[in-house]
Specification:
By secondary structure, this protein is mostly helical. It is built from two helices and no strands. Helix content is 23%, strand content 0%.
Length: 92
């Protein structure tokens, strides 16, 4: 079985026009349509300057209920990883 991939953007509700296929009149083809997931836009790189201005650095410094912020962050990550409905795909 030979497969030909064609990507189209739906221009009219519920319709797709496919042209330029390498088949001849009278040949039988099977057409299966998959919804293509949208590609997320590339994220801008976060520089040290942006990170410093973001307010993330030192955001826990004035909290009395957090003693060791590194230990607290580690605890939050471990809790999130134990949740059954959350799946993380961290680069290795």
């Amino acid at each position: 079985m030979e497969a030909v991939a064609v990507r189209q953007i739906i221009a009219k509700e519920g319709e797709v026009l496919i042209t330029g296929l390498p088949y001849r009149k009278g040949e039988t083809v099977q057409i299966i349509v998959f919804l293509q997931p949208t590609t997320p836009s590339p994220r801008a790189r976060l520089t040290v300057r942006h990170l410093r201005r973001s307010g993330l650095i030192g955001m826990w410094q004035d909290r009395d209920d957090i003693g060791d912020s590194a230990a607290y962050a580690r605890q939050l990550r471990e809790q999130a990883q134990r949740r059954g409905d959350v799946h993380y795909d961290f680069p290795r």
